[in-house]
Amino acid sequence: MIRNTEYARRRRQLMRLAGEDAIVIVPAAPERIRSHDTHHPYRQSSDLLYLCGFREPESVLVLVPGRKAGQALLFCRERDRERETWEGRRLGPEAAAEALGLDDAWDVADIDEILPGLIEGRSRVFYEFGRDREFDLRVLGWVERVRGKARQGVPPPHEFLQLGHLLHEMRLFKSRDELRVMRRAAAIAAEAHCAAMRAVRPGLHEYAIEAELIYRFRRHGAVPAYESIVGAGANACVLHYRDNDAPLRDGDLLLVDAGAELHGYASDITRTYPVNGRFSAAQRAIYDLVLEAQRAAIAEVRPGNHWDAPHEAAVRVLAEGFLRLGLLKGSLDKVLEDHGYRRFYMHRTGHWLGLDVHDVGDYRIDGEPRLLEPGMVLTVEPGCYVAPDSKGVPARWRGIGVRIEDDVVVTADGCEVLTDGVPREPEAIEALIAEGRRRDP
Ligand code: GLY
Ligand code: MN
Ligand code: MN
User: Residue 124 pLDDT > 90, yes or no?
Assistant: First the structure.
C-alpha cells in the first residue's frame, strides 16, 4: 500500500512544479456500461490514484497551491443510505479529508458552485484535456463563469496546460514504496505463470489456463492488469489475441501474456512453452533465439544508456538469427537498414510500466531517445512470430510464435529483474511442466 505521507509528498512536488498561480484539476475516471445496466469493473484514473489513492467514481481532486484555507481538496459523493445499500459504501466528504490526509472535502453535487471560486485569481489551469469529453466541457464551463466576472475585476486564467506534462514525468520515476508494490505485483504474476505452466496439457482449452492465472491473482487480492492473452499454436502470432477459447493441442506452443495489478500497479509477463511439455527442435531454435535477444536487451538496461539501446540489441540478435535460420535472406546490414526483420518482429522491445501497463512518460526528448535513469521501470519483451501462411519460409518455422517478457527496474548501476520468479530457461520450464504432471497426472 502507498501511505498518505507519500501521496502528500507527491502533491507537494506537483504543486511546486505547477507554481503558486496555478490550479490543478484531476477528475475520477468515468464509469462505463458493459451492457444494458451492468458496468465494467470500475478502475480509478491512474492520475487520481497517484495523487491521493481514492478509488470512488464521481470524484475530483483539486490542488490550489498556496491557498491559505487549504491546498488539497476533494469533491466526492455524499453518503446516501439508500444508494449505499444497493451500490456499496461511500467514504463521504465528511470522512474523506481525514482519511486521505487532504485539507478539505465537499459534496461533488456542489462542485459547480464551489470550483469557479477556486479558479478565480489563478492564471494557469493544469488539466488533462482530451481524455473525457464530458468533463472537458465542464472545465470550460467553470472557466467561462470566471471570465464572466472579468468586469468585476476578477482576472480569468489565461493559460491552459496539459497536466500530464508535469505529472507523467513524476509518475515515470518510481519511489521506494512504489517499487515495493511493483515487486509484489510481479511476484504474484510470476506465481500465476508458474501455476499455468504446471497446469498445461493437451486437451485443455486456452481458457482453462486463463482460469489458473485469474485464480492466483485473486487469491492475492490482485486483478488482471489487462486482458490476459493465452494463445496456442498459431494464435501466438496474433499480438493482441484475446479469444482464449481454442483447444491446446499436442505439439503446439502456448504463449501466455498476463500481468497482475496490485494496489493499482501493473506487472506484465509473457512466457511461451510447449503444451506437451517438450519443445520440438524447431520450437526450441526459435525460443533460444528470442531468449538470447532478451538477454542482450536486458544487458543494455542501465543508467546512461538510451531508451532505444535494449531494442537495438534485441533487433540485432533477432535479425542475425532470422538470417541463420533461413527466415530471411541477404546481409545483416541490409536487413537492419530496411527493417526486413519486422516481418517476424513487428513490435517494440518494451514500454514503461507502472500504474498503467503501458505507463506514461515520454520516450523521446527533443526527438532523441531519452536516457535511462534509476527508478524507471520498463518491460523487455522481444519475440518472433512466423504466421502460418508465411510465404517463402521453410515449413518448419510456420505457425511458431514466441515472446518472452519480463519487468525490470533501472538501478544505480544496472537493473533489477522483478519477474525472476517464473523460469525462462527452456530446461527449467520443461521441469516445471513435468512437476505439474507428477502432482496431478
Ligand atoms: N500485455 C501488453 C504488453 O505486453 O505490452
Ligand atoms: Mn508488455
Ligand atoms: Mn505483456
Answer: yes
pLDDT at 217: 98
Distance from residue 341's CA to the centre of ligand 2 (Å): 20
The CA distance from 84 to 93, in Å, is: 15
Residues β-bridged to residue 125: 23, 160
pLDDT for 150: 82
Topology (CATH) of 173-439: Creatine Amidinohydrolase (3.90.230)
Helix (H) or strand (E) holding 223: strand 223-224
Task: Write out the catalytic residue numbers.
Answer: 37, 240, 257, 268, 347, 351, 358, 381, 385, 403, 405
Domain borders along the chain are: 4-170, 173-439
Nearest ligand by distance to the CA of 407: 2
Ligand 1, atom 3: closest residue by C-alpha:
268
Atom of ligand 1 nearest to the CA of 351: 5
Query: Distance (Å, rounded) from C-alpha 188 to C-alpha 259?
Result: 9
d(CA 254, CA 94): 52
Per-residue pLDDT band at 441 (split at 50, 70, 90): confident
Ligand 1, atom 5, residue with closest C-alpha:
358
Residue 153's pLDDT is 86
Report residues whose beta carbon is within 6 angstroms of any ligand 1 atom.
226, 257, 268, 351, 357, 381, 405
Which residues neighbour 128 within 8 Å (Cβ) at sequence distance 6 or greater? 26, 47, 162, 163, 164
- Is 4-170 CATH 3.40.630.30? no
pTM above 0.85, yes or no: yes
User: Which residue bears the cell 451500490?
Assistant: 87
Per-residue pLDDT tens for 22-71? 999 999 999 999 999 999 999 999 999 999 999 999 999 999 999 999 99
Can you tell me which atom of ligand 1 is nearest the CA of 270? Answer: 4
pLDDT at residue 11 in the model? 98
